Amino acid sequence: MRPEKPLKEESKPEEELVVKAHVRAHLANERTFLAWVRTCLALIAFGFVLVRWTSLVEIAAPGGAARVGGLHLKLMGEILLGGAALLLLLATGRFLAVRRQLIQGIYRPTVTLDLVVVGFLLLITVLLALVSHHAASPC
Questions:
Q1: 92 exposed, middle or buried (CB, 10 Å; 0-12, 13-18, 19+)?
Q2: What is the reported pLDDT for 127?
Q3: What percentage of residues in the chain have a pLDDT greater than 70?
Q4: Which secondary structure element, helix H or strand E, spans residue 20, and what is its range?
Q5: Is the pTM of this model over 0.90?
Q6: At what angle do helices 112-136 and 64-104 cross, to 10 degrees?
Q7: How far apart are CA 53 and CA 71, in angstroms?
Q8: 3-state DSSP call for residue 119?
Q9: What is the spatial distance between Cα 35 and Cα 134, in angstroms, rounded to a whole number?
Q10: CB 54 within 8 Å of CB 70
Q11: What number of other Cβ atoms are within 10 A of residue 112's Cβ?
Q12: Residue pLDDT tens, the chain, 139 long
């Protein structure tokens, strides 16, 4: 049952507001870390699919042309898996660094990890485009 009149919010001491802001900052840091973990899981899944796809290609078409494309895909899958592992380590380092800064009462934003991820994804995109172009062109 809801009260007919809204309850008046009691005024809170300034210390309690500071503590809540501090907690919110830590929770935001954890949410950001979990977003990086989800990104890593997506890269791992995609890399695993590419690596496993090469096995299916070799079983379905044991000819040389299919194998060459499959080897490129396998290499790209392995690059994705390695990149995802590296990204997970970098994200963990960033999470711990931001946590340490929040505890010390300082925060220095950085875009290094973001730029590394963008560069890595651009590299993968270019490699995928090259492999798909190579696979589509007649021998």
A1: middle
A2: 83
A3: 77
A4: helix 14-60
A5: no
A6: 170
A7: 10
A8: helix
A9: 34
A10: yes
A11: 9
A12: 445 555 555 556 777 777 788 899 999 999 999 999 999 999 999 999 988 887 776 676 666 545 556 677 888 889 899 999 999 999 999 999 999 999 998 888 888 888 988 998 898 888 888 877 766 665 5
Closest CA to 125 of 74, 76, 88: 76
Burial 48-75 (b: 16+ CB within 10 A, else e): eebbebbeebeeeeeeeeeeebbebbbe
With beta carbons less than 8 A apart as the criterion, state whether 133 and 71 touch: no
CA–CA dist 34, 94 (Å, integer): 12
- Long-range contacts made by residues 125-128, C-beta under 8 angstroms, separation at least 24? 127/76, 127/79, 128/76
